[in-house]
């Protein structure tokens, strides 16, 4: 039997990957399937939490007993996370959020013109949601967890990211075209702002999710 150690708690999880539209047909996106975030939502619900799942383009079935808020872009994801975080005990940002979006949106499909070079795509910065909610906590004692998707110098980049973002815990996982994204399994090190390091061996995404909730429960008053 699962210990209901999140009963009476509201947790917010973001999942999936944002899509930043260029025109009605194209977008800039990433390879997140949403599976890690959905595993976090399912395991939190199994442990008794009220769960809000802010889901960006995941295309997965809604987990039973979870409030799902569908979003498309980083700006929409920010709005939904800020709203849900207002009364949350914990927020876990598993979504892959685009750091940049196209500076302009073309109302009609962008056409290629004969004999002309393609126009460069100008980008502007998206808001950093994890840094914002960590710097300006909606409630005292709210526990905030980020993820770091890295391809090289995984741990060193993770430590630097934890300091930069200001969250309590950072789940550092290695990604590649066929690594972690879309897979049923993951492998990670969970770094704590207190200097702790919790390695999670290769296994189902639910197992990593349960370790994250164990660490969150330990930090909730
Ligand atoms: O969805 P799956 O296929 O199961 O794959 C899981 C995963 C690899 C997507 C997941 O485990 C993961 O690593 N998610 C975070 C991906 C990511 O955006 O990492 P990042 O290192 O670029 O961002 C660091 C953190 O800041 C993340 O918590 C991210 O949600 C947050 N962020 C990033 C940019 C931004 N503008 N705002 C943010 O809040």
TrEMBL record:
Known catalytic reactions: N-[(R)-4-phosphopantothenoyl]-L-cysteine + H(+) = (R)-4'-phosphopantetheine + CO2; (R)-4'-phosphopantothenate + L-cysteine + CTP = N-[(R)-4-phosphopantothenoyl]-L-cysteine + CMP + diphosphate + H(+)
EC identifiers of the protein: 4.1.1.36, 6.3.2.5
Leader sequence segment: none
Pathway membership: Cofactor biosynthesis; coenzyme A biosynthesis; CoA from (R)-pantothenate: step 2/5; Cofactor biosynthesis; coenzyme A biosynthesis; CoA from (R)-pantothenate: step 3/5
GO cellular component: phosphopantothenoylcysteine decarboxylase complex
Region entry Phosphopantothenate--cysteine ligase, spans: 11-221
Bound cofactor: record note: Binds 1 FMN per subunit.
DNA/pantothenate metabolism flavoprotein C-terminal domain mapped to chain residues: 6-217
Cofactor(s) in the UniProt record: FMN; Mg(2+)
Keywords, in A-Z order: Decarboxylase, Flavoprotein, FMN, Ligase, Lyase, Magnesium, Metal-binding, Multifunctional enzyme
Gene Ontology BP term (one): pantothenate catabolic process
Single Gene Ontology MF annotation: metal ion binding
Residues where CTP binds: 99, 109, 127-130, 147, 161, 165
Similarity comment text for this entry: In the N-terminal section; belongs to the HFCD (homo-oligomeric flavin containing Cys decarboxylase) superfamily.
Function statement: Catalyzes two sequential steps in the biosynthesis of coenzyme A. In the first step cysteine is conjugated to 4'-phosphopantothenate to form 4-phosphopantothenoylcysteine. In the second step the latter compound is decarboxylated to form 4'-phosphopantotheine. Catalyzes two steps in the biosynthesis of coenzyme A. In the first step cysteine is conjugated to 4'-phosphopantothenate to form 4-phosphopantothenoylcysteine, in the latter compound is decarboxylated to form 4'-phosphopantotheine.
Record's protein name: Coenzyme A biosynthesis bifunctional protein CoaBC
Gene from which this protein is expressed: coaBC
Residue range from the parent sequence: 180 to 400 of 400
């Amino acid at each position: 039997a699962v210990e209901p150690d999140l009963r009476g708690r509201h947790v917010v999880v973001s999942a999936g990957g944002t899509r930043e539209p260029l025109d009605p047909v194209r977008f800039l996106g990433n390879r997140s399937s949403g599976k890690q975030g959905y595993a976090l939502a399912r395991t939190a619900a199994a442990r008794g939490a009220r769960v809000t799942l802010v889901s960006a383009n995941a295309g997965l079935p809604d987990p039973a007993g979870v409030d799902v808020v569908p979003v498309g872009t980083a700006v929409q994801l920010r709005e939904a996370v800020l709203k849900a975080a207002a009364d949350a005990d914990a927020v876990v940002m598993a979504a892959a959020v685009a750091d940049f979006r196209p500076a302009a949106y073309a109302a009609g499909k962008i056409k290629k013109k004969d004999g002309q070079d393609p126009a460069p795509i100008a980008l502007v910065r998206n808001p950093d949601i994890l840094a914002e909610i960590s710097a300006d906590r909606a409630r005292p004692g709210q526990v905030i967890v980020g993820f770091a998707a890295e391809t090289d110098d995984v741990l060193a980049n993770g430590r630097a990211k934890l300091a930069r973002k200001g969250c309590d815990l950072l789940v550092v996982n290695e990604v590649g075209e066929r690594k972690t994204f879309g897979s049923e399994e993951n492998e990670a090190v969970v770094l704590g702002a207190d200097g702790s390091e919790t390695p999670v061996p290769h296994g189902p995404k639910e197992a990593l999710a349960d370790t994250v909730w164990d660490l969150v429960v330990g930090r909730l008053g």
